[in-house]
Amino acid sequence: MALNDICPCQENESSNTTACSRPCKKCCRCKPDKDRAIITDEICGTFDTHLPVPVPLNIYHVDESIRPFGIVSTISLYYGQGDPTLITVLVTYYDLSEETIMIPRGNTITRTLRNVGSLTIQTPQASGKYCLNIHYK
């Protein structure tokens, strides 16, 4: 590696800044958002809030130390079986605002949301499936 191939950002790797004081256009921290590749994570699973599982049940949570902005998430939640006719899912956003999604038994709800910090099943005695497609740069 030639001396001029070293990214100036590597000189100060301990900083958590995303902006570069001397942009090199070689590393991901120096590239403008429009030049960064879109990354997609898919997280799927099942939930079951029958005893002894504690409610609320957190099914997704972003680590606050690494949460990137501009995340677009498509979430699909299926409520398959349980005693209540509806389940409640709490969506908490990065700014700590909240939204409640109600899902009738036997139905799937799909929503596309921005900057989701966590998803929590609020209803006991219920089971179903979830799938999250998370897109970010």
Textual characterization of the structure:
The chain is 0% helix and 48% strand. It is built from no helices and 8 strands.
Structural class: mainly beta
- CA radius of gyration: 20 Å
Report the count of strand segments: 8
Main β-sheet, spatial strand arrangement: 1-8-3-6
Number of helices: 0
So what's the overall shape?
Answer: elongated
Low-confidence stretches: 11-18
Distance between the termini: 27 Å
Helix and strand topology:
Layout: E1 39-48, E2 57-61, E3 72-82, E4 86-93, E5 98-104, E6 107-114, E7 116-121, E8 126-136
Antiparallel strand pairs: 1-8, 2-7, 3-6, 3-8, 4-5, 4-7
Q: Nutshell version of this structure?
A:
The protein is mainly β.
Which structural traits does this protein have?
single chain; 137 residues; mainly beta; 8 strands; 48% strand; elongated
